[in-house]
Amino acid sequence: MNLMEHLPALIIAIPLFAAFLTPIIDRFSKKGRDAFVFIFMALTLILVVLLAKDVFDSKVPITYVMGASDPHQTIPTQSAVPIRIILEIDAMSIFMVIISILISFIGLIYSFSHIKEGGGKFYTLFLLMLVGMIGMELTGDLFNLFVFLEILSISSAALIAFEIKRETSFEAAIKYIVISSIAALFVLFAVGLFYGEYNLLNIAAIANAMKFTRIDKIALILLFSAFVMKAGTAPMHMWLPDAYGEAPGAVSMVLIATTQASLYALLRVCFTLYNESLPIIMPATLILLGLASIFIGVTMALVQNDIKRLIAYAAVAEVGYIVLAIGVGLYGFLKSGEIEGYGIKALQGGIFHIFNDVLDVGLMFLVAGGVIYMTKERNMNKLGGLAHSMKYSSILFLIGLAAVAGLPPLNGFASKLMIYESIYKVSPILSIVAILASILMLSIFVKIFQSIFTGPKVIEANEVPKCMLAGMIVIAGLIIFFGLFPEMIVKNLVEPAVNALLNYGEYISAVTGV
Predict the structure, then answer these.
(1) Under a CB-based contact definition with an 8 Å cutoff, are residues 271 and 263 in contact?
(2) Contact 337, 435 (CB under 8 A)
């Protein structure tokens, strides 16, 4: 058996297998458990890199049919699709998988420093969260998308409530699971509508048979609502500041990647499932939701005293930039004429910002988690002067805040500049609002830096442990690298992902053979 042929299945199976073995190993050795999880996560990362090379080299979607004698066969008849579990990987899905595994791997290293009690449970849930993300990004079936969404939601809720001694953590987990359950029910209802109408579950097969009937319109509203809700887009963002703010530091960062998985599902629904049948009201709605998220995120960040809640509201604003860019890109996709070129650039900026968002905001969450771990304090009014004893953390936080605010030469500047230029063509007002929000965000983060790291010492604290510092340095290195060489990232990762979304016919024909 050639293992290289089974990479898509192995990327899901290996962390799932590790998740079940981790509690057993934990009973015998804590160090052995950490080494086991690290090795299996590293192995998954290597397999993702190998799969990504195959996808980018082939430049066409790769299909994997579970249980078939030839797992890479196409399905010539649609009637065979619903009883097959099909993984379908194109440049867009592998782009998202790279983000998921990379961020999870860095978060794992960071967690080794401070997860002392309940480590077996923590790492089991952490691996299951990774399985849920990767499964959502690799699956070609709507029902399996629902299954992986549930795995992701349940494991994420448990990790949000991991510090159960804090009542606010339990409350945040309840909010998260309620919103996730509603979103999952919407998805399941939509899946039922499609199966009842077309007798199909596969995304490509349904897209090929799409008639855009009234039932299809209802399913679109359900799926659209579910994924913008799970992505934390305003006004359905009420769970996000609580969840991000109360989760352990590494989990807060990985939760950003989970919301990006929901954005990926939204992109797949709009560009692949409905493609040109999508009504023009959808991009207009996304543009309005993006503006609302930017406005609410920035204004609510102004009044926060809790360091992690403030960063969480900044994360809401960053989701707004991505959704705004996707809305403009989708508008360009559905319209012809001069706007089309700017629509493509908007998509490139938005998808590039997906990666930059999880790096920039993720770094700030890691530093904030380190500050809380060393000082046992979350209120910025009770902190100060930490740069005297936490020099590395203060520098890393400064890099993160500059990146989130979109200052050159860091990565946030590169993707936001692409977004500003593209949305200006649709409306100069949109671009002005986005730029002003970034300026306001910069002033907010400068205030945070001044409150926590500068001035006289208010509280004694040492530098964070080495594993925490290592995770933060790796993220900061990626931020600087992406900022110095944005063309390399755009050309090799972002452009193929955008092209895969726009060339939806290749995704459909890879499964149906049509």
Answers:
(1) no
(2) no
Q: Show the tokens assigned to 25.
A: 């190993």
Q: Is residue 2 part of a domain?
A: no
The domain total for the chain is 1
Instruction: Judge whether 160 lies within some domain.
Output: yes
Tell me whether strands 86-89 and 62-65 are parallel, antiparallel or unpaired.
antiparallel
Map 66-122 to HEC letters. Answer: CCCCCCCCCCCCHHHHHHCCEEEECHHHHHHHHHHHHHHHHHHHHHCCCCCCCHHHH
- pLDDT tens column, 403-458: 998 888 899 899 999 999 988 888 888 889 889 988 888 888 888 888 888 877 77
408 preceded by a cis bond (ω within 30 of 0): no
Q: Please report whether residue 265 resides in a domain.
A: yes
Q: What is the C-alpha separation between 348 and 341, in angstroms, rounded?
A: 11
Distances, alpha carbon 144 to alpha carbons 82, 209, 497, in Å: 11, 19, 22
Q: To which H or E segment does residue 15 belong?
A: helix 7-26
pTM greater than 0.85: yes
- Please give the radius of gyration of the chain, using alpha carbons only, rounded to the nearest integer: 22
Average pLDDT for the chain: 89
